[in-house]
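Annual report, structural modelling task.

Input specification for the nicotinamide-adenine-dinucleotide complex:
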Amino acid sequence: MIKNIAILGAGLMGVGLAQVFAANEGAKVVLRSRKLRDDPYAPIVKNLDIFVENGLLTESGKAALLGRISFTESMAEAVGDADFIIECLPEDMAIKQDTFRDIEALTRDDAIYATNTSVMSVTEIASKCRRKDRIVGAHFWNPPFLIPLVEVVQTEDASDEAVEACMELLRGVGKKPVKCRRDVPGFIANRLQHAIMREALSMVENGIADPDTIDEALRYGPGLRWPHVGAIEIAEMAGLDLTLNIHRYIFRHLESSPEPSPLLAELVGKGDIGFKSGKGYRVWTPERIEASNRGLREYLIKATRDLE
Ligand SMILES: NC(=O)c1ccc[n+]([C@@H]2O[C@H](COP(=O)([O-])OP(=O)(O)OC[C@H]3O[C@@H](n4cnc5c(N)ncnc54)[C@H](O)[C@@H]3O)[C@@H](O)[C@H]2O)c1
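The model returned the following structure:
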């Protein structure tokens, strides 16, 4: 039974994950940062307040949850007694590999290591470690305290026991872990997401529709069904015979370039990178950005409340 959890890296994801794992009453969560900020609890309190404002957590529940989280700058202190260690360090192969290698001397032999890498090979991240059987991927989605999905990635070396212990831990804190049986780029959900994005950007580039129209088509059509039925169930619902006929006809017309969209590369080259610069495919004023972020957060709170 996993109780002691160490989180390495107190950035966006590390802070969010502390809140997630501290939801368990018996948990002891240590967040390790190279340099602690003056008020390390502040970002967690800010996120928890969203829950309180929406009636998902009481003030006393918030205090209890915060009481299960502590901070340290010492790696040995963070991982020494941990059952489960998850790294939320920058997306940099060397940092992740070296950190896992270096902590092996500090952790218990039965500790499970997880990496929250978005796209990197878990096998490669584990490559400098002795106990590769204890190392799994646990890919959370942002914001991790609102999105239930966590992709648990099994490498060829990882034991079933380590994978199952990770899945069990995640279920215990109300997450929806899904197992990715192979350590492939993009795991499951990013492969799906970027297949759709490739087609969406290609349609803009080819003048089939403008970005607003494409996003509306997704939001008001297929996107509405997905929280209830996934892509494969849709195919079965419509009939696999129909799906086969559609694929025979349409696949040759879909974008299949192995390169990113040239228009995307052009925009990035000009510095038009979206919310961060105020312009991407569209103009993003501070008001529009705030409305988009707030709208997504409010939607997620409502949608995840309704999910089974
Ligand atoms: N941001 C997302 O939407 C998201 C979603 C899923 C997964 N991830 C993955 O989670 C991981 C962390 O992402 P993030 O968005 O929290 O990043 P972040 O930059 O917010 O946080 C990284 C933290 O690591 C610390 N750090 C930097 N260099 C370090 C070093 N050499 N040693 C130790 N600590 C160091 C930083 O000070 C910072 O606190 C990445 O692998 C990322 O790909 C991110």
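DSSP finds 14 helices and eight strands in the chain.
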